[in-house]
């Protein structure tokens, strides 16, 4: 147990991965670099605005890189940094835990994707 004034290194990871959509975005990028539209399609229910926000946060945190190519039409790809790729085990463990403890979790709402 930690004193409330004591820094907990794990808290930074919880704060990052605890943001809505972040684990799903990282999970999608574990397959390799993706364009914005590909990421949007890989995470049902995620809006353009929220994907833009989360990608900017992940880039600022050093988890994601953004590569812009001077092509017509312009092409932008997002990829995990080595630090981002190292989250594979963390996210896989979260999935394993969730699967094994499904009864302890609230039911996930089902939403259709509309745009």
Strand order of the largest sheet: 1-3-2
Let me know the average pLDDT: 86
What share of the residues does DSSP label as strand, in percent?
5-15%
- Oligomer kind: single chain
SSE arrangement, N to C: HHEHHEEHH
Give the count of helical stretches: 6
The portion of residues assigned to helices is 40-55%
In short:
By secondary structure, this protein is an alpha+beta fold.
Write the layout of secondary structure elements.
Layout: H1 9-17, H2 22-29, E1 34-35, H3 36-42, H4 48-60, E2 64-69, E3 75-80, H5 82-85, H6 88-100
Antiparallel strand pairs: 1-3, 2-3
Labels describing this entry:
115 residues; alpha+beta; three-stranded antiparallel β-sheet; 6 helices; 47% helix; 12% strand; globular
């Amino acid at each position: 147990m930690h004193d409330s004034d004591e820094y907990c290194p794990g808290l930074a990871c919880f704060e990052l991965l605890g943001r809505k959509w972040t684990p799903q975005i990282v999970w999608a990028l574990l397959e390799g670099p993706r364009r914005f539209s590909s990421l949007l399609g890989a995470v049902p229910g995620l809006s353009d605005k929220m994907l833009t926000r989360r990608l900017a946060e992940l880039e600022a945190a050093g988890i994601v890189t953004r590569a812009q190519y001077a092509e017509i039409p312009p092409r932008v790809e997002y990829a995990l940094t080595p630090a981002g790729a190292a989250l594979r085990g963390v996210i896989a463990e979260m999935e394993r835990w969730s699967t094994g403890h499904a009864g302890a979790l609230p039911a996930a709402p089902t939403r259709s994707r509309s745009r």
